[in-house]
Amino acid sequence: MYILIVEDETRLAQAIAEMFHQQKDRVEIALDGKEALDYLRTYEFDLIVLDWMLPGCSGLDVLRRLRASGRQTPVLMLSAKGEIEDKVDGLDAGADDYMSKPFSTRELLARAKALTRRKGEVVLDHLRFGDLALDLDQQNLSCDGRSVHLGHKEFEIMRRLMMEAGRTFSKEDLITWVWGSESEAMDNNVEVFVSFLRKKLAYLGTAVKICTIRKLGYRLEDSHD
Q1: What are the distances in angstroms from CA 206 to CA 36, 54, 93, 113, 198?
Q2: CA distances from 47 to 4, 73, 112, 136, 210 (A)
Q3: pLDDT digit string (tens) for 26-68?
């Protein structure tokens, strides 16, 4: 999973991040509401762990803006506020679950898994664009009866491009999405896997192409349009 932790207590944020790292998840940390909103404008996350009390822009404000944008990313809210009214406010604003501080990290992990399982039950198991379909379970790309399996990095790049088909993604965006923000991957790593994907798209005979947008990055286009 790709997880955003929004927590201004640095040591707590790092402890939560380490717990998810041990589960092989990719994690970003935002230490205030403004930084969280910057991440949310740029990336798609599978889960957000969101503290209520943040400097500048509160967690509740971040949550309201997220939901106002139409995004349904699961949100686990953390707060020292333990009153029932506070929990109701958080849930009414769009939180999927709420934990009062202090909390057990084991319980947090269990709740996070439950939220992402719940999300997985309602989302489609395929992404589609034009005549192209991406099987999110088997990691197969198909078109008109032909199918090809994608390696992990090929799959993650194609998943990102198809999630917001028509949007241009920079190489830096794709490096963060596929390799992680702390990775030493370079632009040429992206170029290599985009080349692999283009060959597989050619094999499938799809009208969908990965187009290079000069000095900006890559986006999917349907040549039938």
Answers
A1: 37, 47, 42, 36, 10
A2: 6, 6, 8, 17, 28
A3: 899 999 999 999 999 888 888 999 998 898 888 889 999 988 8
Helix locations, 30-146, DSSP H: 33-42, 59-68, 84-92, 105-122
Look up the pTM and report it: 0.54
| Residue whose pair of structure tokens reads 């799809």 in the numeric block | 206
The DSSP element (H or E) to which 221 belongs, if any, is strand 217-222
Residues 3-24 have pLDDT tens digits of 999 999 999 999 999 989 888 8
The strands making up 47-51's β-sheet, listed across from edge to edge, are 26-30, 2-6, 47-51, 75-79, 97-100
Question: What is the C-alpha to C-alpha distance for residues 113 and 46, in angstroms, rounded to an integer?
Answer: 11
Rounded to 5°, the CA angle 145-127-150 comes to 65
Sheet holding 146-149, edge to edge: 126-129, 132-135, 140-143, 146-149
Spatial separation of the C-alpha atoms in residues 111 and 191, rounded to whole Å: 38
Q: Which of 113, 119, 117, 84 is nearest to 98 (CA)?
A: 84
